[in-house]
Amino acid sequence: MPVITFANTKGGAGKTTAVLLLATELARLGFRVSVLDADPQHWITRWHENSQGVFGNRLSVVPYVTMGTIDRQLADEKARADFVLIDLPGSRSSLLAKAVGHSDYVLIPVQGSAMDAQGGANVIELLQYLEDKADIRIRHSVVLTRVNSMVTTRAMHAVKDLLAARRVHLLQTPIIERSAFRDIFGCGGTLYTMDARRVSNLDKAQENARALALEVLQQIPAALRPTGAERLRSVA
Fold it and tell me: Range of 78's domain?
């Protein structure tokens, strides 16, 4: 089953938010999803503890993933899940290379800043090294995060120009800055269990998450997609 790793060596890039949005949307579509939580902040684990029963057994979280445990944990979760997502630390670590080596697809969340772009570039350089030195080609994309829907900054243009110059694939769906994406970590549940009277633009947050999941699914080679993925045509 496909392994999708989320990586940026700079913390605060919106990586864990991207993991949570994709995981919950895939589970909502009926897939079995496992998240390996290797981030020392353990935000995904905390969210899951506050969200018991939301998806039944369709979404599970494996906490405390380390260099010594990831091989076994990955093997266990691949045997039971349709998708395995890995949330890596927002720093340089030996776990980055190991997780990327296991991956079918790598998603690199980047904010519109030079520091975030450099953190993403570290991951891209590793992927390029694996291709050049070991002939290991791993499909990957950048997703822009915390984008202001009303403002396009000079820094954002610079990031896009840098990605284009390096011929790095950029998802067409950015993750917009939404209060719902922040609040969900505190209240648990999903974008569909939140109270629209208390969360502004909840419908737009739902649309954003759904579009992100569908675009990511299109990046997974057809041969790796779980059985039944053809039903996605009816919701695309």
Answer: 3-234
